[in-house]
């Protein structure tokens, strides 16, 4: 199979940089349902722009290229060991060329392998079949949406919905609750795969397997088809919206599969996937490894009516636009309120889990007084002059930094934190006490934000690995929305409260 590595490298590149047509159609369909000029319309406009940029630049749609997960069907007699070797070789090559971010971290030492290989990475599932072709499918599912996966054990009590029993209606309640609990932290609007039955492990495997179905297919099981249609209609009535900004589009796809279980266990497992639904597949010649076909390239026949709106990537109706240049004064921050659109010109600093933990007990290598911290783990490569170049740089989910953020704001005088999905009560109190704001960038829009970065001033803590290092970046026209201000207001808290009230409307049984 002399062509296998190159075929796999092409598959990885396409998956990372080019959303398939069915996913694009779902995003466009969601965009058409939003009201013109709203925060969600702004987010979806940025998302569609980012999708085009990623394809044109042949660069990652989202900087978090996740845990590479392959599902492989092979004819009897094909050497699976050789396929595994070539998958790993292609993964290493794709990492070197910036199509994948180095994401493989030793769970005990915290060391990043640097090449996306390690114990259990990548994930490869094999199945034999009687067809005379190799079928390889890949999904790149980032950590932000992976962290919003959830598993229910029926019967159970669900917030807003009451008791969920061991029946189809209990399954319905679990799926609705899974969408509610994700809020904007999983980069909504998203897709969900649901596995009903099995055990703890196989339930999640079945849920993720549903994500390999096409967005607009019809479930062959009539009961599950009705359930999928119900969820698609009513989950969007929760009004969580894109990025959790509120709005009409929260869910872009729902696929449900079921398997047998043992009498004592009844699991409903939900795999949440962000809008950047990166999955592709190919068929290969089993003798040569050459690609004979693509599995998700056909264009779905979906009628989409574009909304009548003024296209914009910088403003929404009825909002203020404020330009800030670090270092930022407390007075400038106190003047901001939830809903304001902020554009930053100047120097910002990336910081994720490892840096926040470090800064709790150590000093910063740079002056952060009046500065901006960006929750981001970029994809970085060196150019021919040995200078760092940003290949992808969207925000990561901020809630992971909740234990640290307020203390670090106080300790270093930080005035703005950029991320996605919002933060909790402790951070909100810290913003109010110390005069800072939280700015929500558009999750997954890694090319859009990379284009705002004009240069790399330097980097500290490379020993943490590329995603966790502290990168010092110069930005121009870097735009985000104030969703938590210095006066105790939080859009995320308000949307969660409203969506919980709407969730309670679905408490009564629907399916007998």
Q: What is this structure, in a nutshell?
A:
With 512 residues, this protein is of the alpha/beta class.
Architecture overview:
The chain has 14 helices and 20 strands. The strands form five sheets. Strands 2-1-3-10-11 form a five-stranded mixed sheet. Strands 13-14-17-18-20 form a five-stranded mixed barrel. The protein folds into three domains: 1-137 and 286-311, no CATH class; 143-273, no CATH class; 321-496, Fe-S hydro-lyase, tartrate dehydratase beta-type, catalytic domain (fumarase, Alpha-Beta Barrel), CATH 3.20.130.10. The longest helix is centred in the first third of the chain and has 19 residues, at 39-57. It is an alpha/beta fold and 512 residues long. Helix 1 (4-17) crosses helix 4 (80-96), helix 2 runs antiparallel to helix 3 and helix 11 (405-412) runs parallel beside helix 12. It is globular, with a radius of gyration of 23 Å.
User: Can you summarize the main beta sheet?
Assistant: 5 strands, mixed
CATH fold call of the largest domain: fumarase
Number of helices: 14
- For this structure, what is the CATH class of the largest domain? Alpha Beta
Query: Structural class, judged by helices and strands?
Result: alpha/beta
Overall form:
globular
